[in-house]
Amino acid sequence: MRSYSLTSPAKINLYLEIIGDRPDGYHELAMVLQSIDLADRIDLRSISTDTISVRCAHPQVPSDCTNLAYQAAALIAAEFPDAFAQFGGVEITIDKHIPIAAGLAGGSSNAAAVLVGLDLLWQLGLTQSELEELGSQLGSDVPFCIAGGSAIATGRGEKLSPLPSIDNLYVVLGKYRNLDVATAWAYQTYRAQYGNSYVAGKQDLKARAAAVHSSSMVQAIIHEDPIAIGQRLHNDLERVVIPAYPQILLLKETFQTAGCLGAMMSGSGSTVFALCDSEQQAQKVQQQGRNLAQPKDLDLFIARLTSTGIQVLSSDKD
Ligand code: ATP
């Protein structure tokens, strides 16, 4: 049997701006996405039956066809029926380390790893842009997760422009164990509260998106200026998520007081990250997080920014 093991890293949003409504019902976004080295491990193994199966010990991760990793395999099997017939089914094992429903794109990254791994297992020879196109059918964050690193993401988040690597920085991630924010709820609530300020009309959308490309965050990354990156962290979704979950603000303020470069909620939350210029600074900030009132409810991780997305760890090609 042939097998591949892959690393499936999480992402944070250094910048998330909601521009307006799209005709397809999604939001038009301008984001800066960044991979971090907090990662799941995905093992793919060819099996003799023509089935797709998912195994994951984490109680919140489904093992059925609702798992994004399963959906990625089903998509490839449907697109390449000859390869599916030739190589047979696949068993997907997910070793979960990325917190669930945390705004860290754990499920999207797992789907990206399955696309990359099945391309190799079934010898499809797909290009990165072909993989990204398949990924965009599964979820807006999946295309970014394939190559990872630092990138501007526009459209639904699937149109990517790579940025220079800033992988010498660290983050402290704080996630309340019992505080899961549903991404769909966050965007729907934002639309309900702020939809009247959306940019309308195709031309306006283009003009605004162009302005974001030269935004101060992008400039700060291009100039590798950690202090400016920390000052320019931005996330529109904080406007709806923080009022509903004040603990997120408490955590953000705790991180800021501890002396990091900047702190922000990632994606739709509930993870808050503190950007740090050294591992020592990250350890200090993590300690401040531990001193919070209910530390038992709070998971804290230190991660490093990374310039890579899905990577093969090992393969067995008997
Ligand atoms: P995003 O940042 O892309 O919005 P997220 O990090 O907030 O994603 P996920 O961890 O991907 O959220 O999980 C969201 C939901 O998706 C979970 O509640 C879980 O039931 C479901 N799910 C499906 N497949 C997976 C997977 N492979 N890993 C984790 N969750 C998954």
Features:
318 residues; alpha+beta; Ribosomal Protein S5, domain 2; 8-stranded mixed β-sheet; 12 strands; binds adenosine-5'-triphosphate
Could you characterize the architecture of this molecule?
- A hairpin with a 3-residue loop joins β5 and β6 (159-163).
- The protein has twelve helices and twelve strands.
- The strands form two sheets. Strands 1, 2, 3, 4, 5, 6, 8 and 12 form an eight-stranded mixed beta sheet that branches. Strands 9-10-7-11 form a four-stranded antiparallel beta sheet.
- The chain is an alpha+beta fold and 318 residues long.
- The longest helix is centred in the middle third of the chain and has 16 residues, at 106-121.
- The chain has one domain: 2-Layer Sandwich (Ribosomal Protein S5, domain 2), CATH 3.30.230.
- Bound molecules: adenosine-5'-triphosphate.
- Adenosine-5'-triphosphate is lined by residues 60-62, 66-69, 94, 100-108, 110, 141, 183, 267-268.
Task: State the shape.
Answer: globular
Helix count from the secondary structure assignment: 12
SS-derived structural category: alpha+beta
What bound compounds does this protein have? adenosine-5'-triphosphate
Rg (C-alpha, Å): 20 Å
State the low-pLDDT regions, or none: none
